[in-house]
Specification:
Rossmann fold; 11 helices
Length: 361
């Protein structure tokens, strides 16, 4: 029997979000109902609200979440009621050509729950990234649930579900940052700071944080950046080259996702260096680069989708590192808020006042 819970709905493009009663069906085969304990307010949720992802309104927002499995459907064996899990939006299929080649982090057929959650009048909701976790409970595919140490704070664990994993993975998995490398990170919001943390974990000798906001640069230093550049007042390409002996960084991570920041990343890397795009562009953006420069500089131009993570491998590892005191994931949690405060959290995000607001239930 469907349960009535509260959830945050984006009713239409650029309309204020509102809290509505939603119906969560019993889990079907391969599905699970999760009682949400915490969910981060991610910029991707704002993209959904603004119509930047698609126009399948109304959306049930929220995806950066952790909670406890309440019930599971037929055939579910990997999780059980009572398990503490982080929700992910890459439930790998195990059967596609990427999975069969041993590259499940590139799965081409990730799946979500088959059933839809609805409003009380029967209107079907589109869950953000197939999760929809700004709600007391949510319905997901069982493969979207990754078990982690239940002793970790739910507010901390949930952030691995998107932004923190995307940034750390951009450095470790996509960028392949190694010991002694020079790394530049352009854009020091939650994802960019996570890329700083990932570079620090990898043993980078120089981590250059670039942003237009001195507050964010100060935070990046606390996360492990060795140098900072305010690109509002200083040419970041010249500054990065100067800090790297005139050569450029081995890996440059664009955590903004705009044509101008991508060009900065492209020209701020060393010959044969790597550019990683982890910031999410909007559909109308285009990029123009001289093809001779693309050819002549060599190296690699990569996109990082979810930090090229494998949740079953990466989430427990990062929680363990946090529990051991080797990384401070709690530093990403600026504030905890209630479900009625999501619209205000979007405003704070837009103003650059927070790394993450986290809804707690």
């Amino acid at each position: 029997m469907a349960q009535e819970v509260r959830g945050v709905i984006a009713p239409g493009k650029n309309e204020p979000v509102r809290v509505e009663t939603i119906l969560v069906p019993d889990p079907g085969p391969g599905e699970a109902v999760v009682k949400v304990q915490a969910c981060g307010v991610c910029h991707t949720d704002l993209h959904y609200k603004q119509g930047g992802i698609n126009d399948e309104f109304p959306f049930l927002l929220g995806h950066e979440a952790s909670g406890v499995v309440e019930s599971v459907g037929a055939g579910v064996t990997e999780i059980a009621p009572g398990d503490f899990v982080v929700l992910n939006w890459r439930a790998v299929c195990g059967q596609c050509r990427a999975c069969r080649r041993g590259r499940p982090q590139y799965c081409f057929d990730t799946h979500n729950a088959e059933q839809r959650m609805t409003l009380k009048d029967g209107t079907e909701l589109t869950p953000a990234l197939g999760i929809g976790a700004f709600a007391d409970k949510t319905l997901v595919a069982a493969g979207q649930c990754t078990k982690v140490d239940p002793e970790v704070s739910p507010a901390v664990a949930g952030l691995l579900g998107c932004g923190v994993m995307a940034g750390i993975g951009a450095a470790l998995n996509t960028g392949g940052v190694g010991r002694g490398d020079a790394v530049a990170v352009i854009g020091c919001g939650g994802v960019g700071d996570a890329a700083v943390v990932g570079s620090y974990l990898a043993g980078a000798s120089k981590i250059i944080a670039v942003d237009v906001d001195d507050r964010k640069l100060t935070t990046a230093r606390s996360m492990g950046a060795t140098h900072t550049v305010n690109s509002r007042t200083t040419d970041p390409v010249e500054a990065i080259r100067e800090l790297t002996g005139g050569f450029g960084a081995d890996v440059v991570i664009d955590a903004v996702g705009r044509p101008e920041t991508y060009r900065q990343a492209f020209y701020a890397r060393d010959l044969a260096g790597t550019v990683v795009l982890v910031g999410v562009p909007t559909p109308e953006m285009t990029l123009e680069l001289p093809l001779l420069d693309v050819f002549g500089r060599g190296g690699a131009l990569k996109s990082s989708w979810y930090g090229d993570c494998l949740p079953s491998r990466d989430f427990p590892m990062l929680v363990d590192l946090h529990q051991q005191g080797r990384i401070d994931l709690a530093a990403f949690v600026t504030e905890t808020i209630g479900i009625d405060d999501v619209e205000k959290a979007f405003e704070r995000m837009h103003a650059g006042d927070v790394l993450r607001s986290v809804v707690t239930f």
